[in-house]
């Protein structure tokens, strides 16, 4: 089943059940406390926290998400993209646990001919929070899940809150068993890598008012919320990879074409001899390229441009990592002009604006690759000198200073320096680098403060003037008198 078809079925399923279909918000988070939209619930935060009345009791969406936290997982696990799409259904004081369980189960196990996703009910597992008997009971009664496939986990895994006083509550996650060839029996509880039991959907039950929130696991429950909410998130790419019979989310229809094109450009075969170490590493690189190119496309599509701070820096890192990975795969020519249009074509069924806006998007991406190529060309000489000096000195470690000047003068992001150093068997004094970065930031802040203080001082002078009247300036007279 194509990804666009799964998306369509999801929205239709919930629309038929009284949910208002809400278009995806931008990847630039509508909530000012977040750089990027990291989950389907982000655009609904004002309704979920009760800050604003919800304009509808039920909503559904397919939300574009970026999670930079997952960047190191990309290509290594089967299930983490820096960009992904979260399908969600939301209830604002309307249905609660039973409704959430019923709606999810009907979609997952509904027959394909009837608009469902057709998962085998016998391969589904769920987790609930330790004392959440209501949820466990709903899974047992409504979905008919045997108690062995309803596992109870603690706050670390099955509790949600914002990290601040406000709504919170237990959650319940749905897993698919990919089979014994991917790991031992025992359900998600024993499968800490998540390779065999794949988490596809998280149902959050916003049930309590919390206070005194000290950490993920330490808080005080004040009592039940007057209006309980449902917030769910299903990973579209994860469902697609299962339904398309491929091994991971980078091999689905919306991502694989880039992966294949990258392999072609590098003259290698993806997945060739999976047990050999070399190709393993190569395959990870190809998956990183496919993931990062897509994330770059989507971020620029939403108006982010490469830069040295905040969102722009994340975008820069993603694009540069993709370009460098291609270089490591042996491709010296510019690669984004080859890869970006492939990603656009794979994504534009769901996001037609990528095609209409492609002239702008591609200009931004290609300019960044050019800038990076110049950076690499000029900085690599300094890098090589630093490495050979370090090796000669018998201390195979680049100093914080060297890493800092690569960053400051040549625009080498620290992860590029780290990666290049690791390839040469050299470590980097990252702590020293961070200390220098902090110094630079503090200096910049102090400068900014000095500027601000300047204007404050003028105000202070005005106030003095208002309070005390103009100072009698007698110097000229005095001087005059003295010289007389
Ligand atoms: P995991 O434990 O696998 O990292 P998660 O528990 O962090 O996932 P949630 O925060 O519960 O994920 O998000 C809801 C759903 O969104 C997940 O069940 C999953 O299907 C999907 N999802 C989360 N992170 C990613 C990602 N980086 N790439 C693709 N899908 C994701
Ligand atoms: Mg995660
Ligand atoms: Mg999880
Ligand atoms: Mg989860």
From TrEMBL:
EC top class named in words: ligase
Subcellular location: Cytoplasm
EC number: 6.1.1.7
Gene Ontology terms describing biological process: alanyl-tRNA aminoacylation
Record's catalysed reaction(s): tRNA(Ala) + L-alanine + ATP = L-alanyl-tRNA(Ala) + AMP + diphosphate
This protein's record includes keyword RNA-binding: yes
Gene Ontology MF annotations: alanine-tRNA ligase activity; aminoacyl-tRNA deacylase activity; ATP binding; tRNA binding; zinc ion binding
Cofactor(s) required, per the database record: Zn(2+)
Alphabetically ordered keywords of this record: Aminoacyl-tRNA synthetase, ATP-binding, Cytoplasm, Ligase, Metal-binding, Nucleotide-binding, Protein biosynthesis, RNA-binding, tRNA-binding, Zinc
One term under GO cellular component: cytosol
Cofactor binding mode and count: Binds 1 zinc ion per subunit.
Span of domain Alanyl-transfer RNA synthetases family profile: 1-484
Notes concerning its domains: Consists of three domains; the N-terminal catalytic domain, the editing domain and the C-terminal C-Ala domain. The editing domain removes incorrectly charged amino acids, while the C-Ala domain, along with tRNA(Ala), serves as a bridge to cooperatively bring together the editing and aminoacylation centers thus stimulating deacylation of misacylated tRNAs.
Functional description taken from the UniProt entry: Catalyzes the attachment of alanine to tRNA(Ala) in a two-step reaction: alanine is first activated by ATP to form Ala-AMP and then transferred to the acceptor end of tRNA(Ala). Also edits incorrectly charged Ser-tRNA(Ala) and Gly-tRNA(Ala) via its editing domain.
Family (UniProt): Belongs to the class-II aminoacyl-tRNA synthetase family.
Name of protein: Alanine--tRNA ligase
Native species: Blastococcus saxobsidens (strain DD2)
Residues of the full protein shown: 1 to 484 of 900
């Amino acid at each position: 089943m194509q990804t666009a078809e799964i998306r369509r079925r999801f929205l239709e399923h919930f629309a038929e059940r009284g949910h208002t279909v809400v278009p995806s918000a931008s990847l630039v988070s509508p909530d000012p406390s977040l750089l990027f939209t990291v989950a389907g619930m982000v655009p609904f935060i004002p309704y979920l926290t009760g800050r604003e009345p919800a304009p509808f009791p039920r909503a559904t969406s397919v939300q574009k998400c970026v999670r930079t936290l997952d960047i190191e997982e990309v290509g290594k696990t089967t299930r983490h993209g820096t960009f992904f799409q979260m399908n969600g259904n939301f209830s604002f004081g309307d249905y609660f646990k039973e409704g959430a369980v019923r709606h999810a189960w009907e979609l997952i196990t509904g027959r394909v001919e009837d608009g469902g996703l057709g998962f085998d009910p016998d391969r589904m597992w769920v987790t609930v929070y330790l004392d959440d008997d209501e949820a466990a009971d709903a899974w047992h009664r409504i979905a008919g899940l045997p108690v062995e496939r309803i596992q109870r986990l603690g706050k670390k895994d099955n509790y949600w809150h914002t990290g601040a006083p406000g709504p919170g509550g237990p959650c319940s996650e749905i897993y698919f068993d990919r089979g014994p060839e991917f790991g031992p029996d025992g359900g998600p509880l024993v499968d800490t890598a998540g390779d065999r039991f794949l988490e596809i959907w998280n149902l959050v039950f916003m049930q309590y008012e919390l206070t005194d929130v000290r950490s993920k696991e330490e808080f005080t429950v004040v009592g039940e919320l007057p209006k309980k909410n449902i917030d769910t998130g299903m990973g579209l790419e994860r469902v697609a990879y299962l339904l398309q019979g491929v091994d991971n989310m980078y091999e689905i229809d919306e991502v694989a074409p880039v992966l294949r094109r990258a392999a072609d450009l590098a003259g290698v075969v993806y997945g060739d001899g999976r047990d050999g170490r070399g190709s393993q590493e190569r395959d990870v690189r190809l998956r990183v390229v496919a993931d990062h190119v897509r994330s770059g496309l989507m971020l620029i599509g939403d108006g982010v441009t490469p830069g040295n701070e905040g969102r722009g820096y994340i975008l820069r890192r993603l694009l540069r990592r993709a370009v460098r990975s291609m270089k490591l795969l042996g491709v010296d020519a510019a690669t984004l002009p080859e890869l970006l249009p492939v990603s656009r074509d794979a994504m534009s069924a769901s996001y037609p604006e990528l095609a209409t806006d492609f002239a702008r998007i591609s200009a931004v991406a290609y300019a960044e690759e050019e800038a990076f190529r110049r950076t690499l060309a000029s900085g690599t000489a300094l890098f090589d000198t630093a490495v050979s000096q370090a090796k000669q000195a018998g201390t195979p470690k680049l100093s914080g200073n060297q890493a800092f000047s690569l960053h400051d003068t040549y625009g080498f992001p620290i992860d590029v320096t780290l990666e290049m150093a690791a390839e040469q068997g050299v470590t980097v004094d990252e702590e020293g680098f961070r200390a220098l970065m902090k110094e630079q930031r503090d200096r910049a802040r102090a400068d900014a403060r000095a500027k601000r203080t300047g204007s404050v001082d003028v105000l202070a002078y005005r106030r003095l003037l208002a309070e005390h009247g103009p100072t009698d300036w007698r110097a000229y007279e005095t001087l005059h008198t003295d010289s007389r």
